[in-house]
Amino acid sequence: MGTMFATSNDGVRLAYEVHGIGPALLLLHGFSQDRRLWAKYGWIAHLQSAFTVIAMDMRGCGDSDAPLAPDAYQVAQHLADVDTVADACHADQFRLWGWSFGGTLGLHVAVWSPRIRRAVIAGTYFGRLFTKTYVERRLAEALQPVMRARWQGVQSWPGVEPEDVQCPMLVYTGSADGNVVVQLHQQRTAMEAAGVRLHVLPALTHGGLVSAVDVVAPLVLPFLQS
User: Residue 226 falls within a domain, yes or no?
Assistant: First the structure.
């Protein structure tokens, strides 16, 4: 199925595509990617026999609208976008898989959406990620107005703690995933207490969490299907 569009509650048009048949599975890409990430690494082909796979472009990415006001990128707007696309796909319930920034958004969805049934979160951690220092560092590198607006917008995002999560969750990272794996090791006790599963895959980098299909699929697919 080709590109489709849905309009969020503030008028932003969101691009998405749907493949396969079965329970709905929403895929959320990283900050600098778009929905094509999942097809690029073969995940659509892997998943579409078991799920109705919904791959969306987050606002500011891919074929979705890219407002230039930082307020357009607050977490409430991203959560509304997920609801908008789920509504357009008649997905009253869905599973979710998010990587990197998509994983961070997925943590918020797992707290706030009554529709979510289980979540796979890759390459991010709990707590407040987008601190003033972190965002200022990113803004120093960001030249495009859209990227600047997005970074300014995410600075207001609150942190999510493991005990806030409202659905079964698998968090995975790689032993070479920089600060992410360091933070997750520190958060392991809180995650275990909240029933959140943590899995660290040997030698995988941040990008490897989506590109190393042969390693990741045996971990992720059984959890999503259970």
Answer: no
Q: According to DSSP H, which parts of the chain are helical? A: 36-40, 43-47, 75-88, 101-112, 132-141, 145-154, 178-193, 208-211, 213-225
Neighbours of 21 (CB within 10 A): 11
Q: Compute φ and ψ for 100, nearest 5 degrees.
A: 60, -120
Express each pLDDT in 110-147 by its tens digit.
999 999 999 999 999 999 999 999 999 999 999 999 99
CATH number, domain of 90, equals: 3.40.50.1820
DSSP code of 163?
Answer: G
Specify the pTM.
0.98
Scan for tokens 């299907």, then name that residue: 225
Residue 80 belongs to domain spanning: 4-219
User: Has residue 124 been placed in a domain?
Assistant: yes
Residues 6+ apart with CB under 8 A from 34: 57, 58, 61, 62, 63
Question: For the packed helices 75-88 and 101-112, what is the interaxial angle rounded to 10 degrees?
Answer: 80
Judge whether 224 lies within some domain: no
Check if the beta carbon of residue 54 is closer than 8 Å to that of residue 28.
no
